[in-house]
Amino acid sequence: MIRFFQSEDAQGLVEFALVLPPVLLILVFGLVELGTVLSVAMTMSSATREGARVASALVNGGGALGCSAGQSPNAASVDPNVIAAVERVLVGTGTRVALADLTQIRIAKATLAGAETAGQINTWNYQLNGGPVVDGQQLDFVPASQPWQACSRDNGSPADSAVITITYTYRGRTPLRMLVPMFNQFTMTDHTVMAMNANR
Predict the structure, then answer these.
(1) Does the residue 189 lie in any domain?
(2) Which domain holds residue 19?
(3) Per the domain annotation, does 200 fall within a domain?
(4) Where does residue 144 fall: left (phi above 0), alpha (psi -120 to 50 degrees), or beta otherwise?
(5) CA of 98: how far to CAs of 101, 138, 182, 195, 197, in Å?
(6) Computed over its alpha carbons, how large is the radius of gyration of the chain?
(7) Per-residue pLDDT tens over the stretch 160-186
(8) Number of domains present in the structure of the chain
(9) Poorest-confidence range of 18-22, 145-149, 153-157, 171-175?
(10) 19-50: per-residue pLDDT in tens?
């Protein structure tokens, strides 16, 4: 009996049993966190694509192009409809996106390289139920600056392109955020560029 207690045969097994559960927990939390990040990224990508599609379809609000009286008659409704399209995807069933962590939605004129054109960026900031009403639903985003007027968007040849960008602050959802600072909070950005539908 004394010989059994003095033996070190089971020491490795005991050490393995002490180390394995924490390592497994870190792996599980890491997989859950990574899955959530991927889900949020796919939702953001779908949202920017939908916003760009609506921006392309609505272009300048119809009618004769221009910002004078009688031209582009529905121009005022273009950007709110784009924001509504983005928001509908972000709050759709099963999404893991918290709108309050969405820093900004931007609608901008795209350069030939697909970047935002300086001075032509419309920004919308989060404000719960503070935005315009679209299809009976009040938006949670309000316009902060609107230098790229819808009435000036050209769908001729060559057509303008719109770039829709959303910036999101991801916050860790598992205890892993306390162990790995990277998972505590970081910024995610997604954008989609689409040319305006040409009608001439």
Answers:
(1) yes
(2) 2-195
(3) no
(4) alpha
(5) 6, 17, 19, 29, 32
(6) 25
(7) 999 999 999 999 888 877 777 777 889
(8) 1
(9) 18-22
(10) 777 788 888 888 888 899 999 999 999 999 99
